[in-house]
Amino acid sequence: MMKRRCAVFGLLVLGATACSQSSGDPKQVAAAFWEATQAGDIELAKSYAVESGSTELSQPDGDSSIEAFTLGETTIDGEEATVETRVTTRAEQGTIDVDFQTVLVRETGEWRVDLGRTTQEFATKFIGASLSDMAEQMGKALGEAMGSAMQGIADDMKQEIKPPDEQAQENTETP
Length: 175
Description:
With 175 residues, this protein is α+β, with helices and mostly antiparallel strands. It is 55% helix and 24% strand.
């Protein structure tokens, strides 16, 4: 009987430890959420989100566009926490690094990702990063095009403007 109680107590302690590791630290919850999202496991990702927002998370084709993620500093303010997050995502023009905050709230004593606020934060920063990346690529393309055009103009001018000795030779050759 004593062994049985010890075994049950041991299982309860292990279970409590596992729960506290997954929900006691906002950074661990954020990491688990982003790992599941990166792996395309939407159901698992939803388990780390607040109940009211878990229906917002979907991925119709099951293929994650997240290449990598890193987590930085965690800030806890009462029942809310933010974790500095960088997600590297695939885009048409390559990859884009998006820096934003993963927002978490305590729900029934456990940290959960606030999908609405995190998604809004990500979308805002993603648009900014995408526009910045597009502007950089357009600047490079414009610079290359202008450089090529200027080289063409310079080549044409060399053809039109000849050194005096070449002009004199040309003038003596014409009847």
